[in-house]
Amino acid sequence: LNPQMEESASSALRPAACRAKGGAPGFKMAILGAAGGIGQPLSMLMKMNPLVSVLHLYDVVNTPGVTADISHMDTSTVVRGFLGSQQLDAALTGMDLVIIPAGLPRKPGMTRDDLFNKNAGIVRVLCEGVARCCPDAIVNLISNPVNSTVPIAAEVFKKAGTYNPKRLLGVTTLDVVRANTFVAEVLGVDPRDVSVPVVGGHAGVTILPLLSQVTPPCSFTPDEIKYLTNRIQNGGTEVVEAKAGAGSATLSMAFAAAKFGDACLRAMKGEAGIVECSYVASQVTELPFFATKVRLGRGGAEEILPLGPLNNFERMGLEMAKKELNESIQKGIAFMNK
Ligand code: NAD
Ligand code: LMR
C-alpha cells in the first residue's frame, strides 16, 4: 500500500503549490485498529473534526479500503492509510494524538479480563511504537481490559524512558455517555443536559457512577439508584448479549471516543476549563491508577480532580471497586515485568 495513495493521483495533475493542501492548522492524529468495529466509525468522526489536519489510519487488515472510502469525505482533513506492522512507524511518526481501539472484543459469557491474553500483547507492541515514533503524543487507550491495558502502556513507556503520566488516558467516556443517557431517561430530560461523574475503572463493579453528584442536582429513590447503578455497570454486557456473538459496543464507543478525542484536541489547542472522566495515573486513592474527573490541558491530564463527597452507598461501591481494580492493575504490571 502506498500510504499516501489518496493524494498521489491528484498530485500528478498540478504542482503542489496550486492545490489546496487540506488541513488548515490543526493536529496530526493516528487511529490504531482503524479497520475495526470501533475504528471505522471513529475514523469517520475524526475526519469530520476541524481540529484534525492529518488522520493516519493503521490496522493489520483492510486499511486500504477504509482509507479510500473515508478520504472521499469533503472535509479538509488529509487521510492516509497504513497496513501491517512494517508500516506502524510511518503511521505514528509526527503524531500529536494517538487513539487505540485495536484488539479483540468480548463475546457473550466473557469478562473483559478474558481478553487480557490477546490484547495485552497488542497494546504492548503498539505502545512500543508510540514510544519510538511519537513519544510526546497524547494517547487515548480504548482496548480492553482498560483496567490492565493502561498500566501495561505505562510500563512500556517507563521502560522506553518516555513515560509522562499526563499523556496516557484510559477512555471511560462510554460509561459517562451511558450514565447520562440512563439517568436522563429516568428523569425525563434531554441527556445533553445531564452530567454524571463515573469513577473507578472500566469493568463491572469498578464502574462507579456517582449519582449523588449528578448535575443538574437531583435526587433518586433507593430503587432508582439500584436500577441505574446496575444498568451503568452492565451497559457493555447489555450490548454484548444483544449482539449475540457479533462483538461489543462499537457505534456508541466510536461516539464516546470521538467526544473524548475532541475534548483532548480542544485542550491541546489551549481551550480552558475542559473536564472529562478518564482512567489515569492518580493519587486520589491508594491505587496507582483510577478514573475520576480530570482537567485536560495542552499536555493532557493537567489536573486530577478529587472524588468529592460520597454517600454511604457510593463508599461501599468504592471499596468493592478498589479491590477488583487493584488485581487488574497488578496483573498488567506483572505482564510487563515477567
Ligand atoms: P474489532 O475486532 O471489530 O476491531 C479490532 C481491530 O483491531 C481489528 O480491525 C483488528 O484487525 C485490529 N487489530 C488487531 N490486532 C492489531 C494490531 N496488532 N495492530 C493494529 N490493529 C490490530 O473490535 P472492536 O469492537 O473495534 O473493539 C476493539 C477493542 O475495544 C476491544 O478490545 C474492545 O473490548 C474494546 N472496547 C473498549 C471500550 C471502552 O469503553 N474502553 C468500549 C468498547 C470496546
Ligand atoms: C463496553 O463497555 O461496551 C466495552 O468495554 C466493551 C465490552 O466488552 O463490554
From TrEMBL:
GO terms for cellular component: chloroplast. It catalyses: (S)-malate + NAD(+) = oxaloacetate + NADH + H(+). InterPro entries: Lactate/malate_DH_C (IPR022383), Lactate/malate_DH_N (IPR001236), Lactate_DH/Glyco_Ohase_4_C (IPR015955), Malate_DH_AS (IPR001252), Malate_DH_type1 (IPR010097), NAD(P)-bd_dom_sf (IPR036291). CDD domains: MDH_glyoxysomal_mitochondrial. Residues 28-170 form the Lactate/malate dehydrogenase N-terminal domain. GO terms for biological process: malate metabolic process; tricarboxylic acid cycle. It is an enzyme of class 1 (oxidoreductase). Residues 172-335 form the Lactate/malate dehydrogenase C-terminal domain. SUPFAM superfamilies: LDH C-terminal domain-like, NAD(P)-binding Rossmann-fold domains. Its EC number is 1.1.1.37. One of its GO terms (molecular function) is L-malate dehydrogenase (NAD+) activity. Keywords: NAD, Oxidoreductase, Tricarboxylic acid cycle. Pfam families: Ldh_1_C, Ldh_1_N. Homodimer. Belongs to the LDH/MDH superfamily. MDH type 1 family. This is Malate dehydrogenase. It comes from Eleusine coracana subsp. coracana. The gene is ga13646.
